[in-house]
Design brief:
The protein is an alpha/beta fold. The chain has one domain (8-180, 206-236): NAD(P)-binding Rossmann-like Domain (Rossmann fold, 3-Layer(aba) Sandwich). Helices cover 41% and strands 17% of the residues. The protein is built from eight helices and nine strands. It has helices at 17-28, 43-50, 62-72, 95-123, 144-164, 185-188, 191-199, 209-220, and strands at 8-12, 32-37, 53-56, 77-80, 126-131, 169-176, 231-234, 251-254, 257-260. The chain has a seven-stranded parallel β-sheet, sandwiched between helices. The radius of gyration is 18 Å and the shape is globular. The two termini are 37 Å apart. The structure holds nicotinamide-adenine-dinucleotide. Nicotinamide-adenine-dinucleotide binds next to helix 1 and helix 4.
Length: 261
């Protein structure tokens, strides 16, 4: 059984979506929680719901991140999850969009990892879970900056795992496929596009924030004590599939998912 009784867990981007779902799993497992998110997010409300400490910050602010971790003290686990995903074609991606994406999704994740790792390394104990993506591996039109940022996270993961393992600090990642959150709400409004997308997913559907949250909590927990440097796909089999799995011959698309006839 996964337990975080007596442990302190911090979650960036913890105010909503996958981060908040992860925070709820940690909360149920007994953790004392710190939610980190932008001041303009539903941070206060989400923290209140879980009896968590709210830390309003922008993950791009390295000094604020370091100050937050020094103030919190001994953190046992950190879910590095804050991210954005605005889209634009390659030739129309502005310098501003490119820099903002890399600053938040990649540099912000690195600053969080760096700030958390400092104390964990000293204490010879800790667990870090990064939210990467299936887009860390494959391409998707319109998401060049996002894909570059998520691919970069695997470099951070592998390097940090190499350095920190000797100090008892585990570093892993989850790689979600399409998960129904605020970030992906526009996709879910296009049923025809979803139908084609989900043809390639053996499970025939997208995922829920809770399904990613459970994987984050597992990797962060002692139940994963020998899992280190791993990137766990949470994608319903999407990355295992080369061709369409679902055809009209075997299935039908209802309520945003393929089901057997
Ligand atoms: N939803 C998906 O399909 C999906 C798939 C793969 C990976 N992911 C990743 O999961 C993570 C969470 O995404 P989500 O779908 O829950 O989105 P979301 O928009 O619901 O949550 C993201 C959170 O990050 C916070 N955030 C954004 N910029 C920030 C900043 N500069 N500083 C601090 N906090 C900031 C937001 O305020 C928000 O609370 C992201 O890293 C995203 O790339 C999502």
């Amino acid at each position: 059984m996964i337990t975080f009784a007596g442990k302190i867990v911090a979650v960036t981007g913890g105010a909503q979506g996958i981060g908040f779902a992860a925070a709820k799993v940690f909360h149920r497992a007994g953790a004392r929680l710190i939610l980190m998110d932008l001041a303009e997010s539903p941070l206060e409300e989400s923290a209140r719901e879980l009896g968590a400490q709210a830390v309003a910050l922008d993950v791009r602010d390295r000094s604020a991140m370091q100050a937050a971790f020094r103030q919190i003290g001994a953190v046992d686990a950190v879910a590095i999850n804050a991210g954005i995903a605005p889209s634009a074609p390659v030739v129309e991606t502005s310098e501003e969009l490119w820099r903002r994406m890399l600053d938040i999704n990649l540099s912000g994740a690195f600053f969080t990892l760096q700030a958390a790792a400092e104390g964990m390394k000293e204490r010879r104990s800790g667990s870090i879970v990064i939210t990467a993506s299936t887009n860390s591996y494959d391409g998707e039109a319109g998401l060049v900056a996002y894909n570059a940022s998520k691919a970069g996270l695997l470099g951070v993961l592998h390097t940090a795992a190499n350095e920190l393992g000797a100090y008892g600090v585990r570093v892993n990642a989850v790689c979600p496929g399409l998960i129904h959150t605020r970030l992906t709400a526009p996709y879910y409004e296009k049923t025809d596009a979803l139908k084609e997308y989900f043809r390639h997913i053996p499970m025939g559907r997208g995922g829920s924030p809770e399904e990613v949250a459970n994987a984050i909590a597992f990797l962060a927990s002692d139940a994963a004590s020998f899992v280190h440097g791993a990137a766990l796909l949470v994608d319903g089999g999407q990355m295992a599939s080369k061709y369409s799995v679902w055809t009209e011959e075997i299935g039908e698309f209802r309520n945003n998912r393929w089901q057997l006839k």
